[in-house]
Design a protein that fits this description.
The complex is a heterodimer of chains A (about 450) and B (about 400).
Chain A lengths: L5 E4 L3 H12 L5 E3 L21 H5 L3 H14 L4 E3 L3 E6 L2 E6 L2 E6 L2 E4 L3 E3 L12 E3 H11 L6 E7 L1 H12 L3 E7 L3 H11 L3 H16 L4 E2 L3 E7 L3 E8 L2 E6 L2 E6 L1 E3 L2 H5 L4 E4 L4 E4 L12 E3 L8 H19 L6 H24 L6 H4 L5 E3 L4 E2 H11 L4 H8 L12 H12 L18 E2 L3 E2 L9
Parallel strand pairs in A: 1-2, 1-7, 2-3, 6-24, 7-20, 9-16, 10-11, 10-16, 11-12
Antiparallel strand pairs in A: 4-5, 5-6, 8-17, 13-14, 14-15, 18-19, 21-22
Helix pairs in contact in A: 1-3, 1-9, 4-5, 5-7, 6-10, 9-10, 12-14
Chain B lengths: L2 E10 L3 H12 L4 E5 L7 H4 L3 E2 L9 H12 L1 H5 L10 E5 L2 H13 L8 E4 H7 L9 E5 L3 E2 L2 H14 L3 E4 L5 E4 L4 E5 L3 E10 L5 H7 L7 E3 L1 E6 L9 E4 L5 E4 L5 E7 L1 E2 L5 E2 L2 H14 L7 E6 L3 E3 L6 E4 L6 E5 L9 H13 L13 H4 L21
Helix pairs in contact in B: 1-7, 1-10, 3-10
Classes of the chains: A alpha/beta (about 450), B alpha+beta (about 400).
């Protein structure tokens, strides 16, 4: 019988549930976690020694967070958990993993990618002013170290995270100067029937909004940013609403437009991608169980497509069952069906959420020419537009070659989405038609003097 | 529905060679259709190291590289951009006295070709280039060699040709090329058929298959030079660095990133290559040895490409031995960026005047086709060759 050496990348809700399902069948997966403690971004744990209760840290979700943490705690003796591990390269059946300055080759026979997501951001004037954060980043600061990004914070963008983080900041004692939603009230009204499929989620959202309103926080809809003010530090934000421009004083801004999947490893491993209309982004092609186009590689959680923490738990477990099935191990087919049904239901709720908080498709077009899109390489929107006009660049990789967009430290992880939106507008095409940036190793910058082990440990398959 | 075009010259391949041929032909008013499978300058021409170097080339390439040097001096007039081209100097290092002797012998052999090589001993090196590692024995400095940005330069040749009226078609993959006795017929599936009096085979690593289809099989192989780039660093180095015998080469761009090449990537399909996990570690280790200042720097990207290579590391350049009107220019063996513009000009001369003003006999295709194809099966030389060697 062939040896199965499963590796899971990521120890968020998807990775932990995947590990649990594999361990239940007697496998001992390697779990590579970029974080220092399990939980991923959504259930990120503070460093040891921080004494805040889970209910303070995670609010309504504290039971789910606790369940994920407890599960991982129970699994620790049965898995090979490697925190602080950056998977910076992937090729064939081997991963290159940087940990404590040393790169080790980690072989696998089967791989579950549960790589999570980062904020999706579109630039606007002043977005590089110190004090401007992404929504997710502002939440990480709060969860991880109990820091607020400022004492008077404006939250801007759209999506459920917008109200959640604003609420968490207010509860933590920060002043929330305003919540500015780019979606319109009518969008949310239209999505109401769909949202009724998830009464719990709807109730939480309404609760956050109600609580914020009751505590005097101005909530505005149908907003577009005009500019962040301030030099060394944010002093305010002006925005447009109903044809009027208004300014709100603040010393920090948290903003984001939903999330963007971390797909670099899937790309390096040769997985096929498809344009995911709901995410407005490219995500790995997968079946209902999470199988990618490459045999033995599975994708789960927000790294596969944006679906939130609950779906991540379901898709992580589902992917693990697919792995078991593919290795002819015992797997619970009935459970697999239940998971798929729940994921399908979740997907319908996601449709409604997308309708409630639609992506502001006109934002990219309105970005001024002198606004920096790619901050690693300091490439402006105007540079992208001129390159598209003067050279006929119609495709992202061509745009990258000609302008340096996405060529810096982040390799397009942060700016790629915005650049694609700007290019699509500039050439009058759909985002799906301008392609996606090809990925090269390393996934994140690595020291030149990194110590590489030349050969992987032996794997028998 | 097949579109049919009649033209004077059809060119397969929109790399720096094919596109500069189109440009020089258009300067003389010759009708040209250029067919590029991907985007102009998107393959080897656009993803290479960016060395613009004469030093290190064999004697047979000297007239060509000299002419190319003149053309590089006119780059903005040629293609409308400066392409980040700088005559920074090219410093070739020796790590042993034996290698130093080879650099000296090379200097003596290539006198008269305008390179003005300057030999530097260890002391002179550390005075001028204090950032070099301690184990250097000496070097040879070529003051007017330099580097440029291939991402910008190579596509610009295609645009310049197009601006002068060349019919440049990107995303057109040639599926067959033949001669019907009077004209060349070049087809791209059922979409397009180009008929021409002349055909230029400038298809880089893919050119061997067109040569073969005209009965001229050559031992062209594909190589995948491995590259990496660091995050931007304070500028410490202007020269482009090479090493006697090859192995590693490095330059720093104005923005501060160090571009470093050495070793090979790996093939990942018939037309693709990837950096290859086995080699990136060696490249990083060699880089910090060559440039200790990189100890604290971060690598932000590895990449490679697909380049045509010939066993003698010289291109195939000149008329077909079998089909009148067919001209080959391929197999530039990882050292084509600098000579590319001159190769294009030579091709235009071959078409317009029937001969080249630069000696190109050493690059005749017959040197392989006559050899009964024994060379086809010959394994790739074990000596490590890089863009910077020999």
């Amino acid at each position: 019988m062939s040896i199965v050496m499963p590796v899971i990348i990521g120890a968020g809700p998807a990775g932990v549930r995947a590990a649990q399902a594999l361990v239940a069948q007697g496998l001992r997966p390697v779990i590579l976690d970029e974080g220092l403690r399990p939980g991923g971004q959504i259930y990120r744990q503070p460093p040891p020694g921080f004494k805040r209760s889970k209910s303070v840290l995670y609010g309504f979700e504290h039971r789910k967070a606790k369940a994920v943490h407890d599960t991982m705690q129970e699994l620790l003796s049965q898995v090979d958990y490697r925190p602080g591990s950056l998977v910076w390269n992937a090729e064939g059946k081997t991963l290159d993993v940087l940990r404590d300055g040393v790169s080790t080759a980690v072989p696998y026979t089967h791989l579950i990618l549960a790589t999570g997501a980062t904020d999706r951001v579109l630039p606007f004037p002043g977005w590089l002013t110190p004090g401007v954060y992404t929504l997710g980043g502002s939440q990480v600061a709060l969860k991880f170290q109990g820091c607020a990004i400022g004492s008077s914070v404006v939250f801007m963008g759209t999506g459920p995270l917008l109200y959640l983080v604003a609420y968490q900041y207010a509860k933590a004692g920060a002043k929330v100067a305003a919540v500015l939603d780019t979606s319109r009230f009518g969008d949310r009204l239209a999505a109401l029937p769909g949202m009724l499929r998830a009464p719990g989620l709807l109730a939480k959202g309404l609760y956050y909004m109600g609580w914020l309103r009751a505590h005097g926080v101005p909530l505005h809809s149908g907003v577009r940013p005009v500019a962040v003010h301030g030099g060394d530090r944010v002093t305010g934000l002006s925005y447009r609403q109903d044809g009027q421009t208004r300014t709100v004083d603040c010393d920090a801004v948290a903003y984001g437009l939903a999330l963007r999947s971390e797909t670099q490893l899937a790309s390096l491993l040769g997985c096929q991608f498809e344009f995911n209309t709901r995410d407005r982004n490219w995500t790995p092609l997968r079946d209902a169980a999470g199988r990618s186009s490459v045999p033995g590689i599975y994708v789960a959680g927000d790294g596969a497509a944006i679906a939130g923490a609950d779906a991540a738990e379901l898709s992580g477990e589902r992917a693990a069952l697919a792995l078991l099935e593919d290795t002819a191990a015992h797997y619970d087919a009935q459970r697999a069906q239940v998971l798929e049904a729940r994921l399908a239901a979740n997907s319908r709720v996601r449709d409604a959420l997308e309708r409630a908080f639609p992506f502001p498709v006109d934002w990219a077009e309105s970005i001024a020419d002198d606004t920096v899109i790619c901050r690693c390489e300091e490439v402006t929107a105007g540079t992208l537009r001129h390159a598209a006009r003067d050279t006929g660049a119609q495709e992202m990789n061509r745009l990258k070659a000609l302008t340096r967009v996405g060529m810096g430290r982040c390799q397009g992880r942060m700016c790629g989405t915005a650049a694609a939106e700007v290019l699509a507008h500039a050439v009058g095409r759909k985002p799906a038609d301008v392609g996606r940036l090809r990925n090269q190793p390393p996934v994140k910058p690595i020291p030149v003097r990194v110590v590489c082990l030349e050969r992987p440990e032996k794997v028998s398959t | 529905m097949t579109q049919r075009i009649e033209t004077e010259v059809a060119i397969i391949g929109g790399g720096i060679v094919g596109a500069s041929a189109a440009l020089f032909l258009r300067r003389q008013g010759v009708p040209v259709v250029l067919l590029e499978a991907a985007l102009c300058g998107a393959k080897a021409s656009g993803v290479n190291y960016g060395g613009v170097r004469r030093q290190g080339r064999g004697l047979e390439q000297m007239p060509l590289t000299q002419r190319a040097h003149e053309l590089w001096g006119q780059l903005p007039e040629l293609i409308g951009i400066d392409g980040e081209y700088v005559r920074s100097g090219h410093l070739k290092l020796a790590f042993s006295d034996a290698d130093m002797a080879l650099l000296e012998a090379y200097r003596d052999r290539t006198r008269g070709f305008g390179m003005n090589l300057e030999l530097l001993d260890r002391r002179a090196l550390s005075q001028r280039f204090g950032w070099l590692g301690q184990n250097v024995a000496g070097g040879s400095f070529c003051p007017e060699d330099g580097h440029a940005n291939p991402r910008l330069v190579s596509p610009a040749f295609g645009r310049a040709a197009s601006a002068l009226g060349a019919d440049v078609r990107e995303g057109v993959r040639v599926t067959s090329a033949e001669h019907d006795g009077s004209r060349f017929i070049v087809r791209a599936g059922d979409e397009l058929e180009v008929r021409s009096r002349y055909l230029l085979n400038c298809a880089g690593a893919w050119a061997g298959r067109y040569a073969e289809s005209f009965g001229e099989a050559v031992p062209e192989t594909a190589i995948h030079p491995l590259m990496m780039v660091t995050e931007p660093l304070p500028v410490f180095m202007h020269v482009s660095l090479g090493v006697q015998g090859g192995g590693i080469y490095a330059r720093q761009v104005a923005r501060g990133n160090c571009v470093i090449g050495g070793g090979r990537g790996v093939s990942s399909g018939p037309d693709l290559a990837r950096p290859g996990r086995a080699n990136v570690g060696a490249l990083m280790a060699n880089a910090t040895q060559l440039l200790p200042v990189l100890q604290g720097a971060q690598v932000i990207r590895f990449w490679t490409g697909v380049e045509g290579n010939m066993p003698d590391h010289n291109p195939v350049l000149g008329p077909s031995a079998k089909v009148p009107g067919l001209f080959h220019a391929f197999g530039l063996s990882g050292a084509g960026f600098q000579i590319g513009p001159a190769v294009g000009e030579v091709l235009s001369e071959l078409v317009v005047r029937g001969q080249s003003s630069i000696p190109i006999d050493a690059f005749r295709i017959e040197r392989y086709t006559d050899a009964a194809h024994g060379a086809v099966a010959r394994p790739e030389s074990v000596r490590e060759q890089t863009l910077e060697s020999p």
